[in-house]
Amino acid sequence: MDNFKVKDFMIPISEYATVEIGTPLLDALKVLEQAQAAYTESKYQHRAIIVLDKEDKVVGKISQLRALKAMEPKVDFNDELKSMKKFNFSDAYITHLQDSYRSRGKILTPTNLASAAAQKVEEFMQTPSPGEFVAADSSLDTAIHQFIAGTLLSLLVTENNKIVGILRISDVFAAAFGQMMTLDT
User: Fold this and answer.
1) Residues with Cβ within 8 Å of residue 108, at least 6 apart in sequence
2) 70 exposed, middle or buried (CB, 10 Å; 0-12, 13-18, 19+)?
3) End-to-end Cα spacing for the chain
4) Which DSSP category does 139 fall into?
5) Phi, psi (rounded to 5 degrees) for 127
6) pLDDT digit string, tens, across residues 94-141
7) CB–CB of 9/171 below 8 Å?
8) pTM of this prediction?
9) Are the C-beta atoms of residues 66 and 84 closer than 8 Å to each other?
């Protein structure tokens, strides 16, 4: 696998589920569903949606976790926080109370689902960080190091300062495992 490059395993942006800023979550999920149905070269389906700006540049990503977070009801704790901070409650205690309150709420209600479905993708997408980019001509070893160091599930592949594809950990794992299986033991 010494000669393999990132570009040998990436999925081009053109084959990935993409939506433009301003797209409601429900429409984005429909695009993901269509991409999953159309992509048959791998046993691993798409698990994220790439968000593009008006000039077709990648500005964010929506993972399955981000989509689920969009469904969680938003609770405004501002008034309670002010009074709790006034009485010197610790940040850890306040966070614990907030998490406890959220965990008692129902997520999969018609009201919450309708609210989440209407949210625009830019409200909950993840903006790429510097460690999430890898050059198309980089070695697969470089990408593996980035996956491990950043505990990432995918990397944005760049070429000439433009994002041209997605490298998924599932594809890299399948390739590495396949090579391992060829070893004589």
Assistant:
1) 71
2) buried
3) 18
4) B
5) -85, 135
6) 777 767 766 667 778 888 889 889 999 999 999 999 899 999 999 999
7) yes
8) 0.78
9) no
